[in-house]
Each structure stands twice: as structure tokens, then as C-alpha cells.
UniProtKB/TrEMBL annotation:
Residues 304-340, 420-459 form the EGF-like domain. InterPro entries: C-type_lectin-like, C-type_lectin-like/link_sf, C-type_lectin_domain, CTDL_fold, EGF, EGF-like_Ca-bd_dom, EGF-type_Asp/Asn_hydroxyl_site, EGF_Ca-bd_CS. The chain crosses the membrane at residues 494-515. One of its GO terms (molecular function) is calcium ion binding. It comes from Monodelphis domestica. Endothelial cell receptor that plays a critical role in regulating several physiological processes including hemostasis, coagulation, fibrinolysis, inflammation, and angiogenesis. Acts as a cofactor for thrombin activation of protein C/PROC on the surface of vascular endothelial cells leading to initiation of the activated protein C anticoagulant pathway. Also accelerates the activation of the plasma carboxypeptidase B2/CPB2, which catalyzes removal of C-terminal basic amino acids from its substrates including kinins or anaphylatoxins leading to fibrinolysis inhibition. Residues 1-20 form the signal peptide. Keywords: Blood coagulation, Disulfide bond, EGF-like domain, Glycoprotein, Hemostasis, Lectin, Membrane, Phosphoprotein, Proteoglycan, Receptor, Repeat, Signal, Transmembrane, Transmembrane helix. The lineage of its organism: Eukaryota, Metazoa, Chordata, Craniata, Vertebrata. One of its GO terms (biological process) is blood coagulation. This is Thrombomodulin. The keyword Membrane applies.
Amino acid sequence: MLPFLLPLLSILTMAELGLPASPALQPGGSQCIEDDCYAVFWSPEQFTGANLVCQQFGGHLMTVRSSVAADVISLLAQGGSEISLPASRLWIGLELEQNCSHEQKGKWKHSGRGALCGHQCVVVSEDSASGSVELVWEEHSCDLVTEGFLCEYNYFGSCKPLNLEPSIGVNVTYSTPFGGKGADFQALPLNSHALVVPLGLDLVCKKVEDTPRWSKESLGPWDCRVENGGCSQICSQDNGNPECLCSQGTLSKADLRSCLTEGDLCNPGRCDQYCQLSSEAPGGYTCMCDSGYYLGEDGHSCIDVDDCALDPNPCPQKCVNTLGAFKCECNPGFELLDSECVELLDPCFGIQCQHKCLPLEGGAYRCICKEGFMPIPDQPDRCMSFCNTSECPAICNPYNPDDCQCPDGYILDEDQMCSDIDDCAADECRGGECINLPGSFQCICPPPYTLSRTGQECILIEIVSGDEGSGTIPSTEATGPTTSSPVAGPIHSVVLIGIAVSILSIITVLLATICHLRKKKYSAQATLDYKCAGPTKEEVL
């Protein structure tokens, strides 16, 4: 058993001072080791009820994870109970699986009631059969009502007991957040109180700059014989009043107990924005703020100036305050120019674009179409479906997915896609070559054929007389795509060559005759000679 735990026996008779609301729920004894505290409650409870009592102050039934915890159980279980020790059983936080006949070793002792089956819980009790008192563990039904139970509380930080000078000759009474009270503790968790009645001193364990320390709400030190008066360096009480002194080159903090060095004066977080060392200012430094802020009454914080609340208002129409600054905005129909709001002339005002009007610089505008559409060439303010690939998304009604449209020459496919129709697969060009294009097709005719006006049939070239009597031969290639074509049969190449030679011979004779007649009638007009024998005609022939 650890020697430093022997003083526990003196705390087991304490009463009247605990935090529990009911005296029946006050601990019968308690102790803390570093950040873990333990308490015994002498109150008949089943396992579940005992755990609920522990949870009232943020704890749970005690678990045994080290030899120190086992020694604490031994001391707490042997004091403060009027029940004879051999008959005392205390719940701890251990439950056994739902099976029978547990074979345990070490501190385990069989209950002596045969094999137990089902959900079981564990108690600690004393075994004096060997001639010395020893605590053992026993499994029992969780519905058993024991004489008491052991609770455990875990904290994040603790203070050591108060450091008192031997000459002071006073006692200290400690109270903990879980209700434990006494004069002998190895550690005290955060928010514990230390009461020194003769001095009228009530100290609290709290974190000061992230370090657990004994402190009090009021400023300044207390009696220097108790915890050095709370001073971080020197505590002086020569004239009867305690005073904290800082060594040369340091200054006192706001609590009048702590000291800081000049290097700590302007450490990060000291001032909201800027910190400047000053030997004349209180504390040796001065806080300053950026333009657009003013220094708060505490001398450290910087508060934003509401520029929009100034009179006169810095903006012509709307003012929006921001941290350390502001920005001006204009009402709808105005724009900010040189800090003034001028009326905005919208070039798109009154323009009837089918989809959207895009304002341009200089007061110009341009009608633009949504994705999947393009302007109609002769109507730039109107839009038509457009697709320049073999497949593109359909234009669908956002409120009706079944209402979809595809451009001309496309067919609606699955997943709301438009697929190009292969017009050439249906022999749309009769007597010529068909080239499929996105959304359309194009027919090309071989000589001496030309494309008909329908754009879907190749016909023999015909002589077309002009107003001045000169003949022209129509082109043999289509000038643009078409969307439909009839079917034409194949033409033998030898026949085509013969027909072409015959037609060219006839055309040559006709042209010679026409030129001869014209020369005879209009011998004075030299330009007609050029029309009859120009390079263009020669190229055609």
C-alpha cells in the first residue's frame, strides 16, 4: 500500500460540506491522484442506480487500471462505514459477459452460490480467511443491492494542496466539484475550493495563462504565508499589507500578482492591432489602431468606425459600412462614376432580342442566343436551333422533360439527345454523289450534268441564252447543302463521254453561227468580239 495514501483515513469522518444536493448522496470518503478522483458512497443501490449517482457529478463507477487505484479502493472501503467490514460489498465499474462458470485468478473470489449465468456485475469485498484483511472481487447479479459503491471522476488539470508556512498554524478545508471534502488530498481538480477560515481566505483552483493555480476573484495578493500570496515572484508583507513585487526590468500584470518582462509587453494578442512600447504609458506600452478604427475604453481593443453614420454621408446614394472602411453603391438605373451616381443608359432598353441582349461599349448592343441556338442570318434578333456535330443535346422545356426539340435534319434519340439523319442512306441525290453534312446533305453532279433546282437530281446541261445573245453553261456542282433527294440510276461512262462530245460540238457550231451574225449586223461594236471570243468562253469550251 502506498505510504502517501495513509492520511486518507482522516477524511472519512467529514460531513456537512459537500456539493451533492442530498446528504445521503455525499461521499463517505474521497481522494484525488493527479487528474483522477475517487469517492465511496455508503448508500444501498443496485448496479444501475449506483452508476446514475456517479453520473450526477460527471463521473462513473470506478474502474481499476493500476495498482494505485487498487490501493485507493482498499483505503476507501475500510473507512467511514458503520457496517461490519466482512459484510460490506461495493459496486465497481466492471460487468461480465452473459455466460456461466467464470474461472478467475488473482483477486477474484467465487461467490459460493454455484455457477451464475447471464449478465453479471462485480463488487469488491473483504476476505479475512487468510488471517489478513484483503479485498477481493466477486461476480453477482446486477440486481443485487449492495452496501455502497465506488465512483471515479476524471478532470483536465489539478492544483497541488496549498503551500503553507509552518508558522501559520492553521488548517485548510478543501471541497471538490464532485462533493468530496477534507483536509488531506494529494491533488485538487479544477474549480475546487480551499477555505482558510482563520484568515477569511477562499481560494479557487483555476487556469491562469493555461496553468492550474490557486487564485481569487479580487485583485492583489493575500497573506504571504499562504501559497506566497499568489505572487509569481516576490510577496512582501513588511507593513502588514501583502504586496507583490516584480524584479528589476519587469512590470506587474493587471491582476497585481503576476509579473511580465519588457519582451512580453507587446506579445501577440496584447493589443487588437498595434502595440508600441512606451516608458511613460501605464504598463510600459500603448495600443494603437488603424485608420477607420478607434481605441476602446479598455485601451486594447479596436472598434470599427461606422462611416455611413457620419454627417454628411460620404456617399451620394447608398453607403455600405465595412471593417475599417466603407463603399458607395448606386440605386438601380445608376452607375458610379467619379464618386457620383449618374443615370445609366442601357443600350438594350426597348430592344426585342428573342433570347438575350448584350450591351457593348459605345452604346451598341448585340443579340445573342442560348446554347444550342444560333442567330437566323437574315433576322439577327431571332434564334434557331443549331448543331454542327453528329449529335448534340436537345432543347427541352425545363418544366416538362418530355417536351424536347431538335434542329432540322436531326431526330430525337434517347437521353434527350439529337442525332443527325443520314440523308445519303436514302439515295437523296439522283444521278450524282451525295455528301452527308450535320443536319443536311449536298449533291455533286459529274459533267455534263448539273444540279436541278430542287438540289436532288442531276440533269443534262442546257444552253441558257443571255439578254445579249451569249450562251452560258450552268455549273456542274451544287452550291449548298440540301435536305432531301430522289434516287437516280447509274450512267455508263462511255455513254457519258459520247454524249458530252456531241453536246460540245453542237454548242461550238451554234456559237460560231451566232458570232458571225452579230459581226455582220454590229460591225462597229468591238466589245462584241470580246464577248464572243473571251477567255471565259474559251475555258468553258
